[in-house]
């Protein structure tokens, strides 16, 4: 069997399983600007229909791509964007020398992304999508797309604490001075941060860390990374975030926490910093000279 016949047979066998319609003509079009999840990926065109079978830009591709934005924002894997966008927004000219297999991400990439990101979805009460079953993707490394990771500061990124799914931390509305000082002594770090919540056009909530994060006890955290770290914690621990941050309000918190032995960050106490309660103000002032 020659290469063309082999490729055609392969397409016929695999296309139904992967949602690729051989009877539907394909074309490459510019990735629309409103498709924010696949901007800055190193290419500017996408195939229609895409590899998930979506054929309408306005009706399917753009709105469904937004479903992935919360997961991308968590940074659950360095290549999660490359993996997802290779499925929903990638264009490669099809010829008999470039079979359908080569359009798909490699199974090894899928497994790496799934192993890191599935726990994040589980934390939010969701499961890894059946459409992204890694067994559907080719195992031959020379017959699939293997995006290269970005190597800039990769050695430093490995050393930084990473947020993870956890039980919701304790929230004390009116703590005593002793309670606050004990938390500062027991935990690795303590920061103050303003947490806010707004509603997206889709109706989903979006949580943000507004303004600067102020350190009371820095511990293992780095100033330039901490705001992003807390933002990721909110995005991963959405059930907790929904309880902690009320809609339409900005709440100032004193947050304390620790870095676990596996390098993950866990928040242990959250104290709303109310003007009527002076315990946090006094504790922050006394901390520099306090002996645990």
Structure overview:
Residues 23-147 form the FZ domain. The chain has 292 residues and is an alpha/beta fold. It has 2 domains: 7-143, Frizzled cysteine-rich domain, CATH 1.10.2000.10; 156-289, no CATH class. The chain has 10 helices and 8 strands. The strands form 2 sheets. Strands 3, 4, 5, 6, 7 and 8 form a 6-stranded mixed beta sheet that branches. A hairpin with a 5-residue loop joins strand 5 (189-199) and strand 6 (205-217). The longest helix has 17 residues, at 107-123. Mean pLDDT is 81; it is low at 1-24, 94-101 and 151-156.
CATH first level of the largest domain: which class?
A: Mainly Alpha
Unreliable residue runs: 1-24, 94-101, 151-156
Give me the number of helical elements: 10
Counting DSSP E segments of at least 2 residues, the number of strands comes to 8
Provide mean pLDDT, rounded: 81
CATH architecture title of the largest domain? Orthogonal Bundle
CATH topology of the largest domain: Frizzled cysteine-rich domain
Q: How much helix is in the residues?
A: 25-40%
Largest sheet, described in full?
A: 6 strands, mixed
Q: Which structural class best describes the helix and strand composition? A: alpha/beta
The proportion of strand residues reads 15-25%
InterPro entries: Frizzled/SFRP, Frizzled_dom, Frizzled_dom_sf, Netrin_domain
Main location: secreted
Domain FZ: 23-147
Domain NTR: 165-292
